[in-house]
Amino acid sequence: MGWRHGIVEQVRALAQSLRDNIGRVIVGKGEEVDLLLTALLAGGHVLLEDVPGTGKTLLAKSLAASLDLSFQRIQFTPDLLPSDLTGIHFYNQKDGEFHFRPGPLFAQVILADEINRATPRTQASLLECMEERQISVDGKTLKLERPFMVMATQNPVDNQGTFPLPDAQMDRFMIRMKLGYPSSREGVEILKRTAGTGGATDIGRTAGAADVLAAQRLCEDVAIGDDLLAYIVSLAEATRNHPEVLLGVSPRGTQVLLRACRAYAALQGRSYVLPDDIKTLLLPVCAHRLVTRKRYSADDTAGRILQELLEQISVPSEEGLEGA
């Protein structure tokens, strides 16, 4: 198993350098940063959902600044059109030919700020690029450069002038998470760091495309036993049979959870997945995939259901997992 431990050390070193760099701007939020890095190394996308002023955009920009990747920030508004994102063909009078002008989606890291303020038609223009890493324009399919990651933000409280993301769009996000307010100690540290600076802090780049792609491939070799695979399937099946759930976790949802668990285990310095990895990631990966009978209720019904299932379904023994 020595080769696996060497693999994990490479991923752990990359993740720690990114944690340290982001930590120059973001105070605390270690768990949230790990979730963001999990999505990056698992090839997924992230939806940051919280009230204004909690650092959603700053966290997304900090990760982008830490990576030597092309970056585009898109401010979503009701008048934003799909062609504003994908690009257009325009007629050049000088040579009498049509040329393609790529839109901002042709970058490697996309910050979709306030994504729920765009119309459903514009939101739908993200579906193909998020799932298949390609964009179709005027009958032509153009591949996107990898790694490709979308980080979207939205305010769940202010509903005026917004368009709720459809289930198909939500399913494209590997992880949905909230940042929450800082603790008293963290609040003081934030004021100390930003006093007299206007909140701006420059951070350098610590990793590039080759580093991220290599880490993504290494995470695929993290071991997971058949008993843990069965545990993931059992949790998914339980959501489908729950009386309060209309649509449970799909097979694609279980595949996404598996990828996330492998990346998360590598971030923690392990070459194998533990039951605790599944427990940690079940809510951020699967809660937004459930369609409950109280889907428009203010309470977190999906989160409560998943927490109940974690308590009800027996957890496989951890014996022998390291050698899986």
TrEMBL record:
Keywords: ATP-binding, Nucleotide-binding. Pfam families: AAA_3, AAA_lid_2. Residues 42-183 form the AAA+ ATPase domain. InterPro entries: AAA+_ATPase, ATPase_AAA-3, CbbQ/NirQ/NorQ/GpvN, ChlI/MoxR_AAA_lid, P-loop_NTPase. SMART domains: AAA (SM00382). SUPFAM superfamilies: P-loop containing nucleoside triphosphate hydrolases. CDD domains: AAA. GO terms for molecular function: ATP binding; ATP hydrolysis activity. PANTHER family: METHANOL DEHYDROGENASE REGULATOR (PTHR42759:SF5), MOXR FAMILY PROTEIN (PTHR42759). Belongs to the MoxR family. This is Magnesium chelatase.
